[in-house]
Write a structure and sequence with these properties.
CATH class of the largest domain in chain A: Alpha Beta
Shape of chain A: elongated
CATH topology of the largest domain in chain A: D-Maltodextrin-Binding Protein, domain 2
Oligomer: homodimer
CATH superfamily of the largest domain in chain A: Periplasmic binding protein-like II
Structural class of chain A: alpha/beta
Distance between the termini of chain A: 31 Å
Number of helices of chain A: 9
Largest interface: A-B, 43 and 43 residues
């Protein structure tokens, strides 16, 4: 039976592309929000869930970080890094010079700013809830309009691709994670993601615990902080390190960190994406 | 002459409240975006600009961080911390049981989730571009509707306040910063914000530089990372430390950090907000 994989929908989003690359045979189940995907996995509706976690231009997807911090029984099993290629979609027989309105998610509009200013300086830019929703907004528009969305959204909606690769920065990539009820066994080139916090704010505490990794030559791939939601200035730190949580040196460093923190949660160990 | 202060508008937003608290005599100039406020200050249209930088539930306002990283000639002169109180606004003579649609910015809808589920389980929640825009969306709605917005938006729009303080978490506060062409002189209880990055990714580099502060007993109030926009895994670190950039120990630590980083930018030193 095909594996049930929940993802941030609707069909036609970049996350759907990531799921198809992860598992071409999957039984795809779109959910309207990142917490929805997480709950689908935690409750068993789906065996795996795919959500974006970080974009090279926009930074972290905070909904995904907050889910990993707060939702029990959810682990990262895999990461995938996909290039993001934005396209300009129009209804059949639309003339470029007629376009008066361009719809997309604000992040996508922002990522195509130069293209829009040079090619459509007079068009009105209108925010949609997602790149997939932008295509629907375009179809319902009374004025000649266009939508910025992934290439696949054109096929799904029977509309035309007027331009491809219209993003300003060609190094626009998004990292996705596959969530499941367990993480992955060691492969030799792994990554481990975890979060921790301190009961009290003391000068140098973060420095001390990062030293547990530095001393063992464990590469710190990422450091991030999220609000604890208790009070301003009270943070949860999220780190990605190279190595698997079962590697002896990583295990030792994490145990040393655990003894100095008030909370520590391992999101999982999984193979590092090979660029 | 009244000081010209740009802020993230329109009138009725929480940022307008912050400007009024910062300078009740200011000549208020609303701008539609955070980059717009920054440019107004950098170009001299306004002498100061006020933007949100961090919320205790949602985390950093990444537009503000990116502006501080990239815009030259812009400094933080002051910080203000304001409690965020959401209200439910309706058109005069609306009956609670009639409400079918509730408009607000997605962050505000998220911050009032419990209230909405308990009191309006059947209402449709619709995203608006800002809490101020939500009031306009409500006024134009064909169906009986409500908007979640600040109290002041009710006065400005001649609508009624049906409920106050409807946010789930009473510790919901937002930190705002006042941007200007210079920062503040030392007061004895200051904070300094800066960013830096490394030319190469080496295990322990972040640990080493944080050691410059730990060794001098300088409290690290915040650590954050933002994408460099070059490639995934290439970060700019943002830190807030206690002390003024002219304090001898802070100055020494920053110089030591500068010698180890490929880029370092000081956003400014300013008085710490007294809770």
């Amino acid at each position: 039976m095909a594996r049930r994989v929940a993802y941030l929908g609707p069909p036609g989003t970049f996350t759907e592309q990531a799921v198809r690359q992860h598992n071409p045979q999957a039984d795809l189940q779109p959910f309207p929000s990142i917490p929805g995907v997480a709950l689908a996995v935690a409750s068993g509706i789906a065996e795996e869930g795919v959500v974006p976690i970080e974009n090279s231009l926009e930074g972290s997807v905070t909904d995904t970080l907050d889910i990993l911090i707060r939702q029990a029984g959810l682990f990262i099993r895999r990461e995938l890094v996909l290039p993001i290629e934005h396209c300009l979609l129009v209804m059949p027989n639309t003339t470029t010079s007629d376009i008066q309105v361009i719809y997309s998610h604000p992040q996508a509009l922002g990522q195509c700013r130069e293209f829009l200013e040079r090619c459509f300086p007079k068009a009105q830019l209108v925010a949609s809830l997602s790149t997939a929703a932008a295509v629907g907004d375009m179809k319902e528009s009374q004025l000649p309009s266009a939508a910025i969305a992934p290439h696949r959204a054109a096929q799904l909606n029977s509309v035309e691709v007027l331009a491809r690769g219209i993003q300003d920065n060609s190094s626009n990539v998004t990292r996705f994670v596959v969530l499941s009820d367990s993480d992955s066994p060691p492969t030799g080139t792994d990554k481990t993601s975890l979060c921790f916090s301190f009961a009290q704010d003391k000068p140098g505490l973060l420095h001390t615990v990062l030293g547990e990794f530095a001393r063992r030559d464990i590469n710190l791939a990422k450091v991030e902080s999220r609000p604890s939601k208790q009070s301003l200035g009270d943070y949860i730190f999220l780190i990605d390190i190279h190595g698997h949580r079962e590697d002896p040196d990583v295990k030792e460093a994490i145990e040393a960190l655990r003894s100095q923190s008030s909370m520590l949660k391992i999101f999982g160990s999984y193979p590092r994406w090979a660029e």
